[in-house]
Amino acid sequence: MIFALVSCVDLDHDEPPAGGHDPNLPVNTTIDAVKAMHVLGQFEEITDDLVFDAIVVSSDKAGNYFKQLVLQDETGGIEIRIDMTDMHNVYPIGRKVYVKAKGLWLGDYNGFIQLGGGVGLNNSGQQELVRIPESIIDQYLVVATYGNAVSPKILTLDNLSLSDVSTLVQLDGVQFIGADAGQTYADAVLQQSLNRQVEDCAKRRLIVRTSGFASFAGTATPQGNGKLVGILSIFRDDYQLMIRDVDDVDMPGERCSSGGGTLTIAALRAAFTGSTTPAPQGSIKGIVISDRTSQSVVGQNLYIQDATGGIVLRFTGNHNFSLGAEITVDVSGGTLASFNGLLQLEGLTTGSAVQDGTPGDVTPRVATVIEVLNNAQEWESTLVQLKDVVLGDNSTYSGSVTVRDATGTMILFTRNQASFASTPLPTGQVTLTAIVSEFNTPQLIMRNANDVTGGGSGGGDINETFSSVPNNIDIALPGWANIAVKGARLWRAQVFSGNTYAQATSFNDTANEMEAWLITPAIDLSEAKKLTFESAYAFWVHDGLSVWISSDFNGTDVTGANWTQLTPTLAKQTDPEHEFIASGDVDLSGFSGSVRIGFRYIGSGPGGQTTSCRIDNVKVEKL
């Protein structure tokens, strides 16, 4: 087979003149037939004496290919992994090569089929194809003639297919999207690879990936429209194009009309119809108000805000935009959709956004809890600040924390993966800065631990009188957990004769069973401490109160923790009703590390056990 096509484009890659010797090895297979032997996600050793011939279409001269050689015949193309640099000296573009495939291995990288010298483990302990050592490459690759002309297949962005992967293609009438035009192909300073995007006039898009080590990484992409030549690749479900050098790019023409111009975020939000909606043509500009470094938001998402509002952007991969970055985002290819009530713009590639301003910050709107709840839709994905609030119903930030002020309560949610998730909640009143979000109901999301100021530190001694909780309100105190294991009843603050205390009761409860736990904040037992409190009862029917200690309670899962029962003195039937009885000193020196103490109440519904149990003046202090 001679794969020598007259090129209809000018490919200036220092190709040598035609010539060389062809050993005319017998050929018994094709690239397409070899690739058909592979099952995605598996590895296959080629054990038959298979030989195919093909033409080199890649080049490592400009550094965008590294230890990779791409060959193409009339049936398709394939990449071969070789432990060799400066391959263009031996395998220049247009060189014919015979591949003796016996002993090589087939594999794939996220759907991209390759040939290699064997199977090994990468740095993550996962199997991957290893490169063919340069010392034995002649056993598998036999060079033949050089200077064979290579003609790319002319395609459009709507007819790319798997059969075109690892082949040379040409796209006409394309341009780099607005956010990527005039930007460097890659990060030449940090030598990081980047994805840029090209589009046609119908706004169909394709990723152009460039290595940070490429000699043209720091070159600006053209801002016009024209022709693009490169080798088609694939990563999972996304097609990508790799150019050999900047001679593969020729875009001197006038750009397609972008339409839409610059949109405000409010205008973008207004385009949502209530169901999945294509985003309008144009771009938005704003400040990033989420913090990717703290991982309080998944790496694909960011919150952006301008003077008119805010919105969540969801990219197809992890982005690199930091808190405070001013970015411009081409939204034309995105989709507006609701995720559990939260409006977000989905389907954006990271190349559709570019940082183009001096890092800054957004001044949060000062509000109360009830104001946030009443304006949650309008203020969604914007920054607010709440003053004089108390954080409770948990010991750490992880999960759902109740935010309470004089006007009401709402949820502050923190991912378990956030860097500050395990930080103990502060005590007392604090100032909270957060993003207004939603998960079926309005909630707040912190950016990082610096979003909370004031209050006392968690994990210390305890001196709780419950006097800060209003009468007949479920207890929500900083660091404390109030959890219903059975039924829905919780511990509540009650006032009797001017004294506020915590009470649990199943009186008039409709549930068959009730089990409620009131659990202290984390207690540091690096030094010996003791527990004291007072208990009382009303309407005696049963012993419903017990006290426990745990070193592995995670703040939410009571039944999943290991608990040890403590033996304090508790109010009993022979004690006067309503009179608080001292627990005595409960020595905690037999425990270590960080612990939580739980007050457990068990009762039942109508006609059953109805004793009301009370606790007050809970203290943990040094022995």
CATH level-four homologous superfamily name of the largest domain: Galactose-binding domain-like
Q: pLDDT average, as an integer?
A: 90
What's the β-strand tally? 46
Q: Helical proportion?
A: under 10%
CATH topological fold name of the largest domain: Jelly Rolls
Instruction: Compute the separation of the termini in Å.
Output: 90 Å
Radius of gyration: 33 Å
Q: Given this structure, which CATH class of the largest domain is correct?
A: Mainly Beta
Proportion of residues in β-strands:
35-45%
Tally of domains:
5
What's the story with the biggest beta sheet? 9 strands, mixed
Write the layout of secondary structure elements.
Blueprint: H1 31-35, E1 44-45, E2 51-56, E3 68-73, E4 76-83, E5 96-100, E6 105-109, E7 112-116, E8 118-121, E9 127-130, E10 132-133, E11 141-143, E12 153-155, E13 168-176, E14 194-200, E15 205-210, E16 225-235, E17 238-242, E18 249-253, H2 265-270, E19 277-278, E20 283-288, E21 301-306, E22 309-315, E23 326-330, E24 335-339, E25 342-348, E26 353-355, E27 365-366, H3 369-374, H4 376-379, E28 383-392, E29 399-405, E30 408-414, E31 427-439, E32 441-445, E33 452-456, E34 462-464, E35 481-486, E36 492-496, E37 499-504, E38 513-519, E39 523-524, E40 529-538, E41 545-550, E42 564-565, E43 581-582, E44 586-587, E45 594-604, E46 612-622
Parallel strand pairs: 4-7, 4-10, 12-13, 15-17, 22-25, 27-28, 30-32
Antiparallel strand pairs: 1-6, 2-3, 2-5, 3-4, 5-11, 6-7, 8-9, 13-14, 13-16, 14-15, 16-17, 16-18, 19-24, 20-21, 20-23, 21-22, 23-26, 24-25, 28-29, 28-31, 29-30, 31-32, 31-33, 34-46, 35-38, 36-37, 37-46, 38-45, 39-45, 40-43, 40-44, 40-46, 41-42, 41-45
